[in-house]
Amino acid sequence: MCTEVNLCNTDNVFTVLKFLKSQLPQSILPWQLLTYIYQKVVTREDIYAQVFVNHLTEIKCVIILYSTPGLVPHWNVIQNYTRNIAIACDKEYTNDILLDLLKKCVPWKQKLNFCGIDQRYITPVIEQFVTEKKLGNYEILTHIQFELDQSVFLEKSKILSSTVPEGIEIRQLKSEDATLMVEAWKYKSDDLYSVAQAKFCIENLCSMGAYRDGKLLCWRLLLYDGSFDMAYTIPEARRLGLSSLLSVRLTAEIFKRQERVFGYTALNNRNSLGLAAKMGFRETGISDWIQFEPIGIYVKKDLHPHILKSSI
């Protein structure tokens, strides 16, 4: 059985959120994304969201389909663009209910990006399904999922440096900064990190930038799925501690907006692993990003496929 949730019905959305909260921390990305939709921080039309469950009153599995903000111009053409997919499933039902929803709810004829997938229980099911059905090609990119407790952050923030280097101004980013951010950041991707998406996040969520004489040197922002993401410092401004300063200030702002602060970092990103530890983040799981391309459809390869998410 596969039922699409009416996102205009707040009672139904709240029921799905209750299930997703029961599956934390593995379900943190779909839980926070749907929380934003419920709160109207992100609207259904911003990301063309669709939510599917096995049953509205006995939920065991949730699949959320959504697009990157600014990527898709209209509902009628969502099939022409990459669809992101977030999944949460009770581990006891991955071999039956999850398989059924994968078959009935996922648009396998277009390019897909499975986001923040639980490596232990859900990734193997997707791999097996795609392989057995010979649906297409896929690549798995593994990340560490981190989360920060507010009480730990408050203690850490007392000892972390808060001194701003001379001549540096720290403030919220402006939408006109988005073009520079995407041009400078080497891990950009039309499907993941576009100018339109960066503008959306700056205008609707939390962000921080470090400037010298009006020039943007370092930035950090909160993504539309609620994850702590997209950090970069231009080469000439590195080793000034700007990334750490922005991370602490942005974290304080995020805690005003949402219950949990979380993010992902590539397994080999030592700098981000170090910053995460310094700030008090704890590892809460291993998550996969699965890039899927259907057979017979040519999709231009990302020049930097090894990091899908910028890190903590």
List the SSEs and their pairings.
Elements: E1 3-4, H1 10-22, H2 28-39, H3 44-47, E2 50-53, E3 61-66, E4 83-89, H4 94-105, E5 112-118, H5 123-133, E6 136-148, H6 150-159, E7 168-171, H7 178-184, H8 195-204, E8 207-212, E9 215-222, E10 228-233, H9 242-257, E11 261-266, H10 270-279, E12 282-294
Parallel strand pairs: 4-5
Antiparallel strand pairs: 1-2, 2-3, 3-4, 5-12, 6-11, 6-12, 7-8, 8-9, 9-10
Helix pairs in contact: 1-2, 7-8
Helix and strand content put the structural class at: alpha+beta
CATH superfamily of the largest domain: Gcn5-related N-acetyltransferase (GNAT)
Tell me the overall shape.
Answer: globular
Sequence of strands across the biggest β-sheet: 1-2-3-4-5-12-6-11
Return the CATH class of the largest domain: Alpha Beta
- Helix tally? 10
- CATH topology category name of the largest domain: Aminopeptidase
CATH architecture of the largest domain: 3-Layer(aba) Sandwich
What is the H-and-E element order? EHHHEEEHEHEHEHHEEEHEHE
Low-pLDDT residue spans = 299-312
